[in-house]
């Protein structure tokens, strides 16, 4: 008899298979949406799920949805591939049943995982809201909320800043430009990233988001100061050194 501790032997086999599928598919994606991003989302989603045991999230659903959430990212795959995610992933779920004896199709969790994958996106949620198509499921599904929050948390804070720069480089988008241009990496912060904190769903996710949001605000202030060549007074520089807030990154 398998242990009730998560993950069981069969659950671990499913996780390993999902990870293998994700790695094979996403190796061609740029570093803003690579396997390391997925690993961070998985780790954060599980952390959030463990932090809200009273809502009883299904940990396997959370972990598999996190692992698969960007495999069919529309920025990287064709419309044909992205058209029917359930059909795309069905052979994967069938293999879990035949090879590992874990039938997520019959118990309905395969459908739930793919529904989460289809609804993680910020853009998808925005369109649903604009068209009045947010359902009770979107408001109540704790597994969706864990994966959504984890994905959005990786878009803000320190990693969010690096990912924004990485994607900008991949698509040849300017990092910053004189006022009047709205096609820059910095503009993306004002268009989207600074609004993410408002749309986090879980309480622990909101707490993480608050800290990362403040980090972005500090970063954007530094960008503005540097762009304007704002001088640093010698007395302020000396005070920073005394306070230990200024250090040489090469030492």
UniProtKB/TrEMBL annotation:
Q: Which SUPFAM superfamilies match?
A: HD-domain/PDEase-like (SSF109604)
InterPro entries referenced in this protein's UniProt entry, alphabetically: HD/PDEase_dom
- Sequence ranges assigned to domain HD/PDEase in this UniProt record: 30-165
Determine the domain of life of the protein's source: Eukaryota
Name listed for the protein in its UniProt record: HD/PDEase domain-containing protein
Instruction: Supply the source organism's classification.
Output: Eukaryota, Fungi, Dikarya, Basidiomycota, Agaricomycotina
């Amino acid at each position: 008899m398998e242990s009730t501790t998560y993950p069981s032997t069969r659950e671990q086999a499913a996780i390993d298979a999902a990870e293998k599928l994700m790695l094979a598919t996403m190796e061609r994606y740029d570093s803003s949406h690579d396997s390391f991003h997925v690993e961070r989302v998985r780790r954060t989603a599980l952390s959030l799920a463990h932090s809200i045991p009273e809502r009883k999230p299904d940990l396997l659903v959370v972990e598999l949805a996190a692992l698969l959430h960007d495999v069919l990212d529309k920025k990287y795959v064709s419309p044909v591939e992205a058209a029917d995610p359930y059909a795309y992933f069905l052979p994967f779920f069938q293999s879990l049943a035949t090879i590992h004896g874990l039938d997520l199709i019959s118990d309905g969790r395969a459908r739930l995982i793919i529904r989460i994958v289809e609804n993680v996106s910020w853009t998808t949620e925005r369109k649903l809201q604009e068209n009045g198509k947010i359902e009770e499921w979107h408001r109540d599904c704790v597994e969706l909320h864990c994966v959504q929050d984890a994905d959005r948390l990786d878009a803000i804070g320190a990693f969010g800043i690096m990912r924004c720069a990485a994607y900008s480089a991949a698509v040849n988008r300017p990092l910053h430009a004189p006022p009047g241009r709205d096609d820059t990496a910095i503009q993306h912060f004002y268009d989207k990233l600074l609004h993410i904190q408002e749309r986090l769903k879980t309480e622990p996710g909101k707490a993480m988001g608050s800290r990362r949001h403040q980090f972005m605000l500090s970063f954007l202030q530094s960008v503005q100061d540097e762009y304007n060549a704002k001088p640093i007074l010698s007395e302020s520089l000396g005070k920073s050194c005394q306070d230990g807030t200024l250090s040489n990154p090469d030492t």
